Amino acid sequence: MTDPQKVKAGLERARDALEAVQVVVEELRTKEVTVVDWQHASAETGVLLAQFDRAANQISNAFGLTSTQQRVLAYLRSRIGQKVPKEELRGVAGIYEWARRIRELRVEHGWAIVTNVQRPDLKPGEYVLEHDQPDRLLADDWALAKRLRNSKESGKDRGLKYLQALSPRSADKDQLAYVMQIQSRARRIRELDEEGWEIQSNVDDPSLAPGSYRLASLERRPPRTRKAIKLRHTILERDGKQCQDCGRSPDKNHVTLQIHHRVFVSQGGTNDPENLITLCSDCHAGRHALVRGQVVDELLVTDWEEDLLDA
User: Fold this and answer.
1) Are residues 229 and 290 in the same domain?
2) CA dist 166 → 169, 176, 217 (Å)
3) Which of 12, 171, 227, 256 could serve as a FRET partner for 30 with CA atoms 20 to 30 Å apart?
4) How many of the other CB atoms lie within 10 Å of CB of 135?
5) Is 304 exposed, middle or buried (0-12, 13-18, 19+ CB in 10 A)?
6) Do the Cβ atoms of 48 and 24 come closer than 8 Å?
């Protein structure tokens, strides 16, 4: 139950703190400011803003929002589906370590709070609560991530087990970073792909956010395919992961990249790097001038040329 007297007292303390900040700034405006003046004023302002935070916390407590988690969640729930900048959350939280509370709400309770990691349309520092109720599946995913994180296996093996458990759903950059605990996780994911695990990224599926991965199949591919996968990564890296005809990329333009033979296999073309080029699916279709079907990555579907291309 709300305590009106505590709310009123808190508002008065908050007002006094902000008025004192204004006095500090006005005093600076009356003279030629030195760096020492500015640093002393900044220090005094820091103390006054801390007083404002304490007053704000007193008001939140009076409304029954006694923890930072409660305050942040209540504010996000009042703005379901809307972009909320970090500055607003900092103000609502009343503490400097508010970002940790966001992680706790996601990891421990399954609230679907997304950032630019999950949604490329968001800017860094923007948050969106997508649903008014916690997502039990998301909470279970994070619980699994926590169990795997504490295992003694290598980061690469932990990442594989996590992707296997989620398949065919994807794991985002935050989840994989938490599970694998290594800086080189993108390289380790690539190694798993080269070892025969069919792991898709936004290069293969533009609907996936950069840094997200999905295990498309629980079965490892045969050795011939593994060799093609390794060569495919080499060509993609060589071409800067962008279409060599139009310059578009998955990160910026949400296109799918594929490997194309300059000289078709049906016409004697080889898998030598000089005969391979990265194209988006649109430009790839234009190269083949197909009127039916959909072009695919020619290193991954080895018999495709014989079925669909003219000699």
Assistant:
1) yes
2) 5, 12, 11
3) 12
4) 15
5) middle
6) yes
How far apart CA 94 and CA 56 sit, in angstroms, is: 7
Total domains present in the chain: 4
Tell me the residue range of the domain where 86 lies.
68-129
Nearest to 6, CA basis, from 59, 42, 44: 59
Q: Specify the length of the chain in residues.
A: 311
pLDDT tens, the chain, 311 aa long: 688 999 999 999 999 999 999 999 999 998 899 999 999 999 999 999 999 999 999 999 999 999 999 999 999 999 999 999 999 999 999 888 888 899 889 888 999 999 988 887 899 999 999 999 999 998 899 999 999 999 999 999 999 999 999 999 999 998 999 999 998 999 999 999 999 999 999 888 888 888 899 999 999 988 778 888 889 999 999 999 999 999 999 988 889 899 999 888 778 888 899 999 999 988 988 887 654 456 778 877 654 444 444 43
Q: How many CB atoms neighbour CB 86 within 10 A?
A: 17
